[in-house]
Amino acid sequence: MKKLDIIYEDKEIIVVNKEAKLLTISTDKVKNNTLYSEVSSYVKKGHPKNKVFIVHRLDKDTSGVILFAKNERLKKAFQDNWDNLVKRREYMALVEGNNIGKGTIKSYLYETKTLQVISSNNPSRGKLAITEYESIKEGKKYSLVKINILTGRKNQIRVHLSLIGHNIVGDKKYGSLTNPLNRLGLHATKLVIAHPFTKEIMTFESNIPQIFSNLIK
Fold first, then answer.
1. Which of 27, 33, 147, 190 is the most buried (most CB within 10 A)?
2. How is domain 6-214 classified at the CATH fold level?
3. pLDDT at 27 over 80
4. Which residues are part of the catalytic machinery?
C-alpha cells in the first residue's frame, strides 16, 4: 500500500489524492483495502478515538481529489447541502479520438438491474446530468479533455463522453476499445467547496497523472 497522499488537512477535514483501482469505501466483497480504511488508520495515529466520515465518493478506477470529514456534524452538513456547497468539480479524462472541441452534454441517467448506467432524453426515465467538456490537448489516437460536472450522477462522465463518441480509455463498460494505461483514464483534478459553517471558499487540486500526458504525442 502506498503512503497516503494528503492534499490538505485541518481539524475538521482531510482531503487526499486517491489512487486508481482503490475502492473509496468497503463492499460485501472488499472490507479493508479501501481509501476510507487508509484515512481512518492515519487519523487514529493522532488519537485512537479519532474518526473520519465519508462525504462523497469516486469510482474505484478513478483517481484524484476526495474529501473526508473528521466529525459527524460536518459530514451531515456537507451531505445535506452538497449540490449547493460544491462550487466546481473538475476532472481530466484521457479519451479515444480527437477533433473534440468543447460543449455541454445534458441527458437523464438511470441505472439498470445489471448496474449499467443508461442515458435518456426522457425526464421521466432518470435524473438530470449536465457535463461541460473542452479538449485541452490532442494526439493522433488520444486526447486530454477537461470536464466540469454540474451534477454528480453515477458514471456520469463515462456515459456522457461515450455519447459523443470519445470513450475514456480503459472504460470497457461503456465502449472503450483500448486500455494503454491499464486503468481508467479519469482523474479528479479540482474540488471547490464552500465550508458549511464558515462559508469559506476552499479549493483543492491534484495534478493529472504523468502517464496521461505521455500518451499525447
1. 147
2. Pseudouridine synthase (3.30.2350)
3. no
4. 59
Say if CB 103 and CB 133 are below 8 A apart: yes
Q: Which segments of 19-123 are extended strands (E)?
A: 53-54, 63-69, 86-96, 102-111, 117-120
What 3-state class would DSSP assign to 74?
A: helix
Measure CA 150 to chain center.
Answer: 13
Q: How far apart are CA 26 and CA 45, in angstroms?
A: 21
8 Å CB contact between 137 and 143: yes
| Distance of alpha carbon 182 from alpha carbon 170, whole angstroms | 7
Is the torsion defined by CA of 12, 16, 21, 22 positive or negative? negative
Which amino acid, one-letter code, is at 41? Answer: S
Query: What beta strand segments (E) does the chain contain?
Result: 6-9, 13-18, 53-54, 63-69, 86-96, 102-111, 117-120, 127-138, 142-149, 186-194, 201-205
| CA angle at 76 for the pair 109 and 196, rounded to the nearest 5° | 95
